[in-house]
Amino acid sequence: MPKAEKIERVAELKAGIEGSDALLLTEYRGLTVSDITELRRSLAEGGTRFAVVKNTLMQRAAADASIDELESLLEGPTAVAFIAGDPVAAAKKVVDAAKKFPTLILKGGYMDGKILSADEAKGLADLESRDVMLSKIAGLLKGEMSRAAAMFVSAQSKFLSLLEAYKEKVPDDSVPDEPEPVAEPAPVEVVAEAQPVEETSDASGSEEDAAPDAEGEE
Length: 218
Known about the structure:
By secondary structure, the protein is an alpha+beta fold. The chain is about 50% helix and about 15% strand. The longest helix has about 40 residues.
């Protein structure tokens, strides 16, 4: 392989390493081109790219990506699963493929800054996939929300019942009390003022008329 082509291939592998959520390294000794193509298509459905690599170029790419520990897994014919998605789902497919193709061997992997041994990489396949875990979490959250809503409705119902009971015991202050009857005032007697008696100007004349004429009687 020309030097320029090697440099380009190393750069591609480095980009694949840095752009992956996890790596699974396998030994594909004994697999036919048809077998590898089938496995590649199966993994591609979950967002994983399966590629046969040269160990020397993969070592350089790993070193450039600051993962020198990956060198311990680069022995024998190597094919790498560059996982951009759920590592558990990819591990399940690789393990299933190994059952179908006994010559396919899972050598180990790399995830979360840690090198995985062969047993640890196989252990990923025994875990629940991300979709299943998210579904369970969603179910738990839904159940908790339903219980919380039921508790709120129950507490509200109890509060309203207590409020109604309290209102029955306490008199309603909104109805005004009947006013007390007001005593009517005693009637006031009106005393008429005595009118002055008018003096007649001919009072003396009246007396003369009343007295007998002495001279006439004689």
